[in-house]
């Protein structure tokens, strides 16, 4: 049985989520909270497996509450649910330690699947957020190649003889060993 805490400042939204989740045999709604502060204390007391967390709430918002839950070392996995498909919320939620980000217009079956996925220790992102993240990743400079690494530029600035000395230093040789090997004075 996967226990779920519902956190949203709108009672009708919580009621709708509860109706969807109560229809599932392996999900149990163990509590509801209308703000982030209450959510954190309920997580501490109830220790739900998954928290469905709204972002925009009066007082302590969902991002702050997520950060507090994670910082407290609570075993709860947070799935952020919001009506706002904004990258700022995605990034802030993930940085705060959320395991997922979905929009409130997601289909009930997708929400249930996301809860199972997160409870199993994996992550979930709304398809629109995933598409944007992939595009942003593809447009950003990739990992450095050996020739673009800063050390490669330093090495290229050395003369051939300086590179030989550097290689011997890297091999752990002493000054006298390097001098003898390269026929140089110490």
Rg measurement, Å = 26 Å
Give the SSE order as H and E letters: EHEHEHEHEHEHHHH
The largest pleated sheet is described as: 6 strands, parallel
Please give the share of residues in helix.
40-55%
**N- and C-termini, Cα separation:** 73 Å
- Strand order within the widest beta sheet: 2-1-3-4-5-6
Q: Spans of 5+ residues with little confidence (pLDDT < 50)?
A: none
What's the number of helices?
9
Quaternary status: single chain
- Secondary-structure-based class equals alpha/beta
Q: What secondary-structure arrangement, pairings included, does this model have?
A:
Blueprint: E1 2-7, H1 11-22, E2 27-33, H2 36-46, E3 50-53, H3 62-71, E4 77-82, H4 87-96, E5 100-103, H5 108-119, E6 124-125, H6 127-139, H7 150-157, H8 160-170, H9 175-182
Parallel strand pairs: 1-2, 1-3, 3-4, 4-5, 5-6
Helix pairs in contact: 2-3, 3-4
Question: What report would you give on this structure?
Answer:
The protein is of the alpha/beta class and 186 residues long. It has nine helices and six strands. It is elongated, with a radius of gyration of 26 Å. The termini are far apart.
Could you list some keywords that capture this structure?
single chain; 186 residues; alpha/beta; 6-stranded parallel β-sheet; 51% helix
């Amino acid at each position: 049985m996967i226990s779920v805490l519902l956190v949203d400042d709108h009672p009708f939204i919580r009621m709708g989520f509860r109706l969807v989740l109560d229809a599932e045999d392996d999900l149990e709604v163990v509590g509801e909270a209308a703000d982030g502060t209450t959510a954190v204390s309920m997580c501490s007391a109830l220790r739900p497996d998954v928290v469905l967390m709204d972002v925009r709430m009066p007082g302590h918002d969902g991002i702050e509450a997520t950060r507090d839950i994670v910082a407290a070392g609570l075993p709860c996995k947070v799935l952020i649910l919001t009506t706002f498909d904004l990258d700022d919320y995605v990034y802030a939620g993930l940085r705060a330690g959320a395991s997922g980000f979905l929009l409130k217009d997601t289909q009930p079956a997708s929400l249930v699947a996301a809860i199972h996925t997160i409870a199993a220790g994996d992550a979930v992102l709304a398809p629109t957020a995933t598409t944007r993240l992939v595009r942003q990743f593809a447009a950003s400079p990739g990992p450095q190649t050996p020739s673009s690494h800063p050390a490669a530029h330093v090495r290229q600035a050395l003369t051939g003889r300086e590179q030989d000395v550097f290689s011997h230093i890297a091999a752990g040789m002493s000054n006298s060993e390097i001098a003898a090997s390269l026929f140089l004075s110490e």
